[in-house]
Amino acid sequence: MTLLFPSWKISTVHGLVGSIFAMLFLSIFHEGLKSFREYLMHVAVKSLDASCSDAKPTPGKRNWRSIFHGNSKLPLLIHVIQSILQVIQIGVAYLLMLAVMTYNGWIFLAIVFGLGIGYLIFGWTKFLYGDGSIQDCNDCCS
Fold first, then answer.
1. What is the DSSP letter of 136?
2. What single string gives the DSSP state of each residue in 5-59?
3. What is the DSSP track for 76-104?
4. Which of 7, 42, 51, 92 is at a distance of 20 to 30 A from 23, taking alpha carbons?
5. Which of 95, 111, 124 is closest to 34 using CA atoms?
6. Which phi and psi angles does 39 have, rounded to 5°?
7. Residue 58 pLDDT more than 60?
């Protein structure tokens, strides 16, 4: 069986076990990356709110231009990092999807359990950095 790449051939039990652990850790990494992006967004919003409290905010005038060109101190670096992490997160999500599409039950279970373990480890941060709502942010492809 080939998994993701032509050079990743699974022909032994040891190869299957190694692939299962690789998919498990990749799934956990995916959940950790989502939580890290939420943390960065929390830092950026806090920075934006702090900069708006220094100046006299105009109600209804906070738009995308004021974030980068107005009195806001929201660093452009955070937005660039968020964009790079978004690309990595989507790439990992599609790799996990392609691995599931090999129709190997063990790989499927490893990914599902990895996502569950990752949420168990990192999911509680939504209540620390988010609004604690049930709706997940950026939950595409998982």
1. P
2. STT-B--SHHHHHHHHHHHHHHHHHHHHHHHHHHHHHHHHHHHHHHHHHHS-PPT
3. HHHHHHHHHHHHHHHHHHHHHHHHHTT--
4. 42
5. 124
6. -65, -45
7. no
CA distance 134 to 81: 26
Given this model, what pLDDT does residue 134 score? 43
Q: Which residue has the tokens 């999807």?
A: 97
Cα-based angle 59, 138, 118 (whole degrees, multiple of 5) = 135
pLDDT single digits (tens) 71-104: 455 567 777 888 999 999 999 999 999 999 999 9
Is the Cβ–Cβ distance between 61 and 87 less than 8 Å? Answer: no
pTM value surpassing 0.90: no
Q: Please give the structure tokens belonging to residue 86.
A: 């978004």
Question: Collapsing DSSP states into helix, strand and coil, what is residue 73?
Answer: coil
- What phi-psi label fits residue 15: left (phi over 0), alpha (psi between -120 and 50 degrees) or beta? alpha
Look at residue 129 and tell me whether its pLDDT is greater than 90: no
Distance CA 3, CA 10 (A): 7
| pLDDT at 64 > cutoff 60 | no
